[in-house]
Amino acid sequence: MSTTFERSGITAQCVGTAAMGRTLLEGVSLDAGCGEVVAVVGPNGAGKSTFLKMLAGERRATSGTISFSGKEIGKWPREKISQVRAVLPQNSALNFPFKVREVAMLGRSPHIRFSECRRDREIVGLALEKVGIGRLAERCYTTLSGGERQRTHLARVLAQIWERPENGARYLLLDEPTEGLDISHQHTALETARELASEGTAVVAVLHDLNLAAQYCDKILVLKEGRQAALGSPRKVLRPGIIRDVFGVEAHVSAHPKLRDIPLVVPIGAAGSNGRGRAETAASV
């Protein structure tokens, strides 16, 4: 899927973090090159959002190192990193009656010195169109549905890193970007991530849907109880044994009938159950 680019992207080497004497994450490594989309998956409480917050600089690593294009995260000037790294958090709480275009314009803040210019407004318009809500630009944000709000914030982070810097890479961190979206817009969001990767952006996305991760991501990092359980290509990682051990679910994994070299995961039931469910009930009627 990926294209080769000159610069390395996001690198985490054996990172960990703790809070109040409790280890939250330990020994996790990841290399998301420029041009790659990497998924982070795992059951609830595995440390996915914690790991993304570490990449975003919101939580300090107590062990290991995190680097962007070879420079450790702590050595990046705040203004500079905010111009090339955008973060979509799991929850984007906003209760003020801003217009949709004003929310998206927040993404341009690192680039605005005094006031927004025509180019900033143009980029915001393009970002809103990219996620399919250009028609909502003048709507009040608080009147939007959950999915429309999610797409507004996706437009915001796209606007933040819309233009590729002349001598550098871009980085996009997405925490559950498909949350609250219908099937069509889930694919649109991840197609956008792939498009950015094709332009040299390093993308890391927390996802719950293993089939979306398989379809759109070059690599998958699997976390379990704060530790790294697996890392590799979708074909390497999405295997019945790993899925059972990490998620506690029996699954059938086969080649996707329409997409080449993409595995298709069909959950059967909780590990240890008969996995019959509705099909068995129907057969017995």
What does this structure look like?
It is a single chain. With 285 residues, this protein is of the alpha/beta class. The protein starts with 9 loop residues before the first strand and ends with a helix. It has helices at 48-55, 78-84, 100-105, 118-130, 146-160, 183-198, 210-216, 234-237, 240-247, 277-284, and strands at 10-19, 22-32, 37-41, 63-68, 71-72, 85-88, 170-175, 201-206, 219-224, 227-232, 249-255, 263-270. The chain is globular. Helix 4 crosses helix 5 (146-160). It folds into two domains: 10-238, Rossmann fold (3-Layer(aba) Sandwich); 239-285, no CATH class.
- Average pLDDT, rounded to a whole number, is 92
Strand order of the largest sheet: 6-7-8-3-9-10
Helical run tally: 10
Using the CA coordinates, give the radius of gyration.
Answer: 20 Å
The structural domain count equals: 2
- Residue fraction in strands: 25-35%
CATH class of the largest domain: Alpha Beta
Task: Write out key terms for the chains shown.
285 residues, alpha/beta, 10 helices, globular, disordered N terminus
Put the structure in a nutshell.
This protein has ten helices and twelve strands. With 285 residues, it is of the alpha/beta class.
